[in-house]
Hints:
Order of helices and strands: EHEHEHEHHEEHEHEHEHHE
CATH topology of the largest domain: Rossmann fold
Number of strands: 10
Mean pLDDT: 83
Strand order of the largest sheet: 3-2-1-4-5-10-9-6-7-8
Radius of gyration: 20 Å
CATH architecture of the largest domain: 3-Layer(aba) Sandwich
Number of domains: 2
CATH class of the largest domain: Alpha Beta
Number of helices: 10
Low-confidence stretches: 113-123, 247-266
Structural class: alpha/beta
Amino acid sequence: MKTILVPTDFSGASENAIDFAIAFAKKENAMIILLHAYHITYPASDFSGEIISKEVSELKNISEEKLRNLCLKIMQTDKVKCERVCKEGLAVDIILEASRRMHPDFIIMGTKGSSGIKEIFLGSNTTKVIEKAQHPVIAVPDGTLFHGIKKITYATNYYESDVDAIKTLCEIAEPFKAVINILHISEGEYVPEIENELLKQFVSKVSKQVNYNNFSFQLIIGKDIEKELSNYLMSSSADLFSMSIFHRNLFEKIFGKSITKKLAYHTHVPLLAFHHKKESVVFT
Length: 284
């Protein structure tokens, strides 16, 4: 059985991610592990150790009660197996530690605000987890509801370990009979003939190594990756957008500091982020 780690701070955004995770878990026959990190910061000179210990104990009891009730509701109402973990510490540290220990198939987190992917990469906890976790992270924009998955788009730069990511996407897509659209966005480094040949080689590689028969492949050539991706997400019908952050140049171009000025789109498309292996090489 697959396991899905779902961090929650009991906010609206995390509740939305839990709803998404429940629907996802039902289709994928997965177990949900709810995780809550509680933490109180006091100026050392203003509060005694006894007061701090009492406050932490009270917060722990409140947090555990909320988490217990939430997990019980998921099991009774939604009929999804649920476990819970409640620990003291900073959220990102606790999430990463739990991920290393539990080895979940996915981590599903919510993002705040209506601007979806843009908000993920502006210093939030979700950003830090995506950057540091060694397991796939699905970031769900606030307000996004799960209505099934008909189309998954994976942005590739023709790395060897893209194939591993695509295999995982096939496991997600299979219960939904979803199409997986393999997308490459080029800034026009090569003439169109070469770009098409590179895509053709990658298509051949995927077809030989991946046992799935519902693929589409797409090449977009443009001078501004941010703009091209923005246009694609606004016009496509993708239910899940996926990429790997080992594509450091692509990652920085799309989600760099200039994004607040250049990337003006709002998207409701959840993001599934993978990590490339260090030994990955570009297809030649």
